[in-house]
Amino acid sequence: MSLYHEAAKILDDVRGERVSIKSLVYGRKDWKTDSKTLFALATEAAKWSKVLSEVLERSGVLKVEKQLKPTLAVVLVHDLFLSKRGIALPASHGLNLAVSKHKVRLSAELTKARLRRGFATLDALRASINGRTSGPSGSDSGLIPENSVLAKRPRWIRINTLKTTLAQALASTFAEYEQVSRLSDVLEAPPRDAKILHIDEHIPDLIAISVGIDLTTSKAYRAGELILQDKASCFPAYLLDPQPGDGDVIDACAAPGNKTTHLAALSTTLPGETCNRGSENRVIACEKDATRSETLRKMLLLAGADRVVSVKARQDFMKMDPTTPEFANVKALLLDPSCSGSGIVGRDGVGIPIHLPNVDAEEGDTNVGRKRSKKRKRGRDDDPKTIPSEEDTAHTVDMSEEQPNIEEGEKLKSRLANLSAFQLRLLEHAMSFPTAQRITYSTCSIHAEENEHVVIRALYSAVARKCGWRIMKRHEQVEGMQRWHLRGHQNAVGVAFTALANEPGIDAEPLRPSDVAEVAEACIRCDKNGKDGTMGFFVAGFVRDVGPHLARLDAVHETAAQSAEADVDDWSGFDGD
Ligand SMILES: C[S@@+](CC[C@H](N)C(=O)[O-])C[C@H]1O[C@@H](n2cnc3c(N)ncnc32)[C@H](O)[C@@H]1O
Known about the structure:
Oligomer: single chain
Distance between the termini: 34 Å
GO molecular function: RNA binding; RNA methyltransferase activity
Keywords: Methyltransferase, RNA-binding, S-adenosyl-L-methionine, Transferase
Protein name: SAM-dependent MTase RsmB/NOP-type domain-containing protein
Strand content: 5-15%
Pfam family, one: NSUN5_fdxn-like
Bound molecules: S-adenosylmethionine
CATH topology of the domain at 236-343 and 403-565: Rossmann fold
Largest sheet: 8 strands, mixed
Family: Belongs to the class I-like SAM-binding methyltransferase superfamily. RsmB/NOP family.
């Protein structure tokens, strides 16, 4: 069996048997193709299956090439357009010919599918599909575990209070939904038909509905009133708790902008309210990547956050000078840097919904062997939408790398070491903003190296000690986060501290067991694929009591200058996210 037949078989089995791609690939030893290649193609084709099914249906190719089964067509078309090497078969091979001879038509449909989702380039669409999903993600961009029993998740929707209120949304878009008090009722509901809704008990203005319901065509979604955002991804802005009038907030790694719009909503007074602490806050959104900066702008515009947020597009956060007057009113920073993305559902092939083309579907406007219908109205294809797609926004999530997270051993260890060094540098830079009093640090990673270890290193860094940064303890956290049950791993905190204390030249005071417990308790985790219906996530808060420490401004300035000048080797993580 060829690579393509084997990958198609895996997709068929995943749909039929409801198991993960990973367990199918690695659970059998008799594949002819090497496991890594097979896993990569099956996972990528699954992620792209929604787009590719649309392309195949609209082209009508399957009606002509009857020997191509839908899954086989999806994996072949994936490689035709999305693999650098193209289809890994000789040009004269029957399977290659069956799709390659329709390349022009398929390519036209792929372009239309991309434009319908509002992406200017294939790379932008790719970044969204990889990133999300979560998001746009997806946290939800196609990685919704609609057809998986292993990963039950709801569709999380944050009501955008910059544009509407929860009460208004319940009375309009969700007027026909029955409210249920338990999230499990939503998770157990039949995917498509159940109009039931759960109001989240931790994050204000967040609701969960059945994952099978697509709201992206609803008026409210298109008006920017609803934001598809995983519950875990709402933790950082909520934990940072910016109040109207408190001062400016920096979102250091902002695109695609789910947390930025959340910050904007939290720091803005609602219509009819007045801000009694002086002027409203400004949110400063910094994003290094050019393409993602454009997605960020688009999302801010749609969410009505552009009036509150100033965008620093193509801006490396490490190169922002904390001492410039522009940042003199910055009181809080949200740091959500690139990470391994190991908490994102679907990275291991679990829970990726696989869409297949319907062979009998009506073709689009580029029918194979048919003339264009004169009756066809001008519409979707002629009018590329400017609204960020579900992949774009839902993924919110916070994606990172392009390849599934399947490395093990030394390779994974070295990648995590690089990532955590990069994340720590960004966190230390955030700590060097002279007037800042609160920081949240988050990742969508399940690895302690990117989470508790970074927190401990940051707490014992020179800048934290000079400026008086400490962990935001559980009892100091905003109410919903105090109640959240999953906390940091004590063992990971202890290991990180021991490693640090043993490093030559590190003057770390001994950490008592009660301190280890307190730091772990202060950290917040979310389980991937657990009963909470979230992706894997980590967030911790840092606070600084300004009084005595403002007297140390000189020290902060000095640290900031050193940080800006330091030879940052510019590890940018996996900016495919
Ligand atoms: C995990 S994503 C952020 C997701 C975002 N917070 C959200 O919720 O929509 C990380 C982002 O940081 C950006 N980034 C990485 N290094 C950066 C740096 N040094 N300065 C600014 N942005 C950076 C990446 O391009 C990527 O868009």
